[in-house]
Amino acid sequence: MERVIAIKGGTVYTMEDKVLKDKVIIIKDGKIKEIANNIPENAEVIDARGKFIYPGLVDIHTHTGLWEEGIGREGYDGNEYTDPVTPHLRALDGINFLDRGFEEAKANGITTVNIMPGSANVIGGQGVAVKTTGEILLNPSGIKMALGENPRRVYRAQKRMPSTRMGSAFLMRKALIETQNYIKKKEKDKYLFDLKYEALSGLFEGKYPARIHAHRQDDIMTAIRIMEEFNIKAVIEHSTEGHFVADFLSKKGIPCALGPIITTRVKQELKFRTPETAKIYEEKGVLFAFTTDYPVIPIYGLQLSASIALQYGLSEEMALKAITINGAKILGLDKRIGSIKEGKDADIIITDGDILEPVTKILYTFINGEIVYEYKGPESLLM
């Protein structure tokens, strides 16, 4: 007999522009089969009466398993400091899926994370979107690039380019021009193959976007300018000063990862960091999702970021979207994840209260219809 799970009752925040009450979510074969009124015969019942139900949370910018927790430098696998242009590197090859960050994510209702190389290099490599059980959803999820302080700091110390913002922009353009030349040569030589340019070719083919680390407004503008020169899709990662150019981002239709918004201003690029950026994005119509940049801040900071942004004027509806469906849309995975809808993956969380309230507990986390976390008291959070 096929296994059927029925989640009964509760308030369901579908993230499909409606809130349902006292319904039954029927799960079969890892998918949401139906949102119904009655419980099917022989179904395993999860009683969620009086509880809150949400889609699994999505963090669109992390380094989970690339910077492992609690083991120091041995676990630092996110940056290849030997070359500023490394699009051929793959985050997937550096991830330790036994890192405790994955368990902590599940315990906090996060079911999908996008994992990317760091920002030491102007072009750092290929990201990968995964379920926090380890299932690969999208590989590559984009090419990680970086502007601003980080590449300058790393390579200035080596007395190599880039040591300025101009140098970073030049190396980015140079790599893209070389890729265009490679594509033309490959049309004439079918045996031509270069891992570096094959990775960047995907940008020109529209297979995935450039995911560009840019905190300051001038770096955001440089990123957009370069991508428009080459007709490449882009996502702005962090977008700390995005509130200064929100009209432009909206006009161009550039999506943004926002955060982490609850760090201190540890470097110049963060001087104008404010949780109010989220409200401005909402007002201007910028598609955005919160990020923890884990392990820069703990992964449970995802919903905390949304709740803090509420205090600065973000609407509750947008706060929820920015940790669920918006991230799915920016990743191009919204047909599978990010909302509670018939036919989508059964990635669902049940809580004992409003998820935007810090005291709320995650009671159950489901991924593909399987319970991957169940709250059994404070000790269950210690892992």
Automatic annotation (TrEMBL):
UniProt GO molecular function: hydrolase activity, acting on carbon-nitrogen (but not peptide) bonds
Where do the Amidohydrolase-related domain residues begin and end? 52-372
One Pfam family linked to the record: Amidohydro_1
InterPro entries from the UniProt entry: Amidohydro-rel, Metal-dep_hydrolase_composite, Metal_Hydrolase, Metallo-dep_Hydrolase
Gene3D superfamilies associated with the record: Metal-dependent hydrolases (3.20.20.140), Urease, subunit C, domain 1 (2.30.40.10)
Give the protein's recorded name.
Amidohydrolase
Question: What is the species of this protein?
Answer: candidate division WOR-3 bacterium
